[in-house]
């Protein structure tokens, strides 16, 4: 996926970025400020797409419409957790030269590797389901296109984005970053139109609360939609061959730059997620708890409440989210299969296979929003399979060398993993007891 400086297929944009990065790491440049950081930006922005995918729309809309601003603190806490986990994933790729799936295959028994692969393939399908549905819904809402035709257009557009990989990592990073920028701009405009209660926003950003047992279920969905297991595998792969150095001092400097990349990218993603929930709270909950049980209804309700322009912005952001995250989801699926099984299948085959469930949902006529929320629950349940191995590997000095976790980092990472597992256990109990009704 990523390309090394010695690879003759590296295109000029890639080579320029790698050369500039090497100069910065070796102290051979006078670049300052953003000029020093620029060559290292990109991988986290690709990973960040998964944090603003259509599944986030479903969970954030549901949470804001039902509970107002109550779960805003969950969005921000989940985003901070994502920053920590994505930093560890990037560090793993830099330090070991392997991605997380490869390390699992190299260090775990075959039965566990196969079990993890099957589970992560289910995650990949749930992810593609959410992303594909989101893009199709965006086309439907913007142009009135029948969903099944919108689904086919989405597939074609995703193939087009994926062909950029042949041109190197920089073009793909640029297109994905632009799409994230489109989503951010749409929600900035939405907030300006909605004019939320900023006092309530500030209060619920820092004061925990669930608003009842349903809030815990929605909080688990938010966590699953925000801390995405498939991009934990992807981010380590994006880093393993992008800028290669084995010198301890340069590895430390490289990791510091990648932490900045993570903070910037995940910071933008976190603000977008918060804006989604705030907009839903203002448009629906603050106006008398307007019932919103689907993305289509949210779009139709927004127009009389906030105007047609607000509805169009919502649909455009959903389309950008679905297209970008669908491409990133396919990339993640390739990393997972190659890492666990050392097998590669053509991108177009994987795209066709993973979009089949989404097309089935569209043709059968299932409620798209409830399907999106259920897909996020599946992601949340699979999170420990990515987070636990990540923490175990990054705390090992024999693997990580100078980039081994500090004790405080490992403690924080285990705390995050423990919270994820606890929430998942609660969700399982409710699901088995018949209490889960998204």
Report on the structure:
It is built from 19 helices and no strands. The chain starts with 11 loop residues before the first helix and ends in a 6-residue tail after the last helix. 78% of the residues lie in helices and 0% in strands. The chain has one domain: Amino acid/polyamine transporter I (Up-down Bundle). With 438 residues, it is an all-alpha fold. Helix 7 runs antiparallel to helix 17, helix 14 packs antiparallel against helix 15 and helix 17 runs antiparallel to helix 19.
Please identify which CATH superfamily we are dealing with.
Amino acid/polyamine transporter I
Query: If you average the pLDDT, what whole number results?
Result: 82
Helix content: over 70%
Largest sheet: none
Number of helices: 19
Number of strands: 0
Distance between the termini: 37 Å
Principal-axes shape call: globular
CATH architecture: Up-down Bundle
Uncertain runs with pLDDT below 50, 5 residues or more? Answer: 1-10
CATH fold node name: Amino acid/polyamine transporter I
Order of helices and strands: HHHHHHHHHHHHHHHHHHH
Using only C-alpha atoms, the radius of gyration works out to 21 Å
Give the tally of structural domains. 1
CATH class, named: Mainly Alpha
Strand content: under 5%
SS-derived structural category: mainly alpha
Describe the structure concisely.
The protein is mostly helical and 438 residues long. It is 78% helix and 0% strand.
List the helices and strands and how they pair.
Blueprint: H1 12-25, H2 34-37, H3 43-48, H4 54-67, H5 72-96, H6 100-107, H7 110-143, H8 147-162, H9 169-194, H10 198-206, H11 213-226, H12 229-240, H13 248-285, H14 295-306, H15 308-341, H16 347-364, H17 368-394, H18 397-400, H19 407-432
Helix pairs in contact: 4-11, 4-13, 4-17, 5-10, 5-11, 5-12, 5-13, 5-17, 6-15, 7-8, 7-15, 7-16, 7-17, 8-15, 8-16, 9-13, 9-15, 11-17, 11-19, 12-15, 12-17, 14-15, 15-16, 17-19
């Amino acid at each position: 996926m990523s390309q090394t400086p010695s690879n003759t297929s590296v295109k000029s944009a890639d080579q320029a970025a790698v050369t500039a990065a090497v100069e910065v790491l070796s102290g051979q440049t006078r670049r300052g400020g953003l000029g020093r950081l620029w060559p290292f930006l990109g991988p986290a922005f690709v990973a960040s797409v998964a944090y603003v995918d259509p599944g986030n729309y479903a969970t954030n809309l549901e949470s804001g419409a039902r509970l107002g601003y109550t779960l805003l603190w969950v969005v921000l806490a989940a985003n901070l957790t994502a920053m920590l986990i994505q930093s560890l994933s990037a560090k793993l790729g830099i330090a070991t030269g392997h991605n997380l799936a490869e390390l699992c295959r190299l260090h775990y028994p075959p039965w566990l590797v196969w079990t993890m692969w099957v589970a992560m393939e289910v995650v990949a399908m749930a992810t593609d389901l959410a992303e594909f549905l989101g893009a199709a819904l965006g086309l439907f809402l913007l142009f009135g296109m029948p969903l099944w035709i919108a689904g086919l257009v989405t597939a074609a557009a995703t193939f087009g984005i994926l062909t950029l990989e042949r041109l190197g990592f920089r073009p793909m990073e640029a297109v994905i970053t632009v799409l994230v920028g489109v989503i951010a701009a749409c929600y900035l405009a939405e907030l300006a139109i909605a004019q939320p209660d900023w006092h309530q926003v500030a209060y619920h950003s820092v004061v925990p609360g669930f608003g009842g047992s349903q809030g815990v279920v929605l909080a688990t969905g938010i966590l699953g939609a925000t801390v995405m297991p498939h991009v934990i595998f992807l981010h380590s792969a994006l880093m393993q061959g992008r800028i290669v150095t084995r010198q301890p001092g340069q590895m430390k400097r490289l990791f510091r730059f990648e932490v900045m990349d993570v903070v910037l990218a995940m910071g933008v993603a976190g603000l977008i997620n918060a804006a989604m929930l705030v907009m839903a709270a203002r448009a629906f909950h603050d106006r008398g708890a307007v019932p919103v049980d689907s993305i289509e209804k949210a779009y139709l309700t927004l127009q009389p409440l906030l105007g047609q322009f607000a509805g169009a912005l919502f649909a455009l952001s959903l389309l950008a989210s679905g297209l970008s995250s669908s491409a990133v989801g396919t990339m993640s699926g390739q990393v997972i299969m190659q890492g666990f099984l050392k097998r590669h299948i053509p991108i177009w085959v994987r795209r066709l296979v993973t979009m089949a469930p989404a097309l089935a949902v569209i043709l059968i006529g299932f409620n798209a929003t409830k399907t999106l929320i259920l897909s996020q629950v599946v992601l949340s349940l699979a999170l420990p399979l990515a987070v636990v191995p990540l923490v175990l590997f990054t705390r090992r000095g024999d693997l990580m060398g100078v980039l081994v976790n500090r004790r405080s980092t490992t403690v924080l990472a285990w705390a995050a993993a423990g919270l994820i597992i606890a929430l998942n256990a609660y969700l399982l109990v409710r699901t088995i007891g018949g209490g889960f009704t998204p």
